[in-house]
Write a structure and sequence with these properties.
- The longest helix is centred in the middle third of the chain and has 15 residues.
- The two termini are 12 Å apart.
- It is built from four helices and no strands.
- The protein is mainly α.
- The chain has one domain: Orthogonal Bundle (Non-ribosomal Peptide Synthetase Peptidyl Carrier Protein, Chain A).
- Helices cover 54% and strands 0% of the residues.
């Protein structure tokens, strides 16, 4: 799976979690901060993690979710887990 394909699937997941999804996702970059730019709460992050696990068929094991600050952090993790 390419990085662009991961981003598109991630955008689909995020659009159900963020407020004003059209505006936020149209400006989404890998440097976008999950908490300040996308205004995710801890509950929103939990939802995203569950949706990512189901969508990409991966598990977040031995991971501190606070380590995920940017969209890039999430994409890098997904990419690494898919390649296992």
């Amino acid at each position: 799976m390419t990085r662009d394909e991961i981003v598109e699937k991630l955008k689909t997941i995020l659009k159900y979690t963020v407020s004003n999804p059209e505006e936020l996702l149209s400006n989404l970059t890998e440097e976008s901060n999950l908490y300040t730019d996308l205004s995710l709460s801890s509950v929103g992050m939990l939802y995203i993690i569950i949706a990512i696990e189901e969508t990409f068929k991966i598990k977040f094991e031995n991971v501190n979710f606070e380590d995920f600050q940017t969209v890039k952090d999430v994409i890098d993790y997904i990419s690494k887990e898919i390649d296992k």
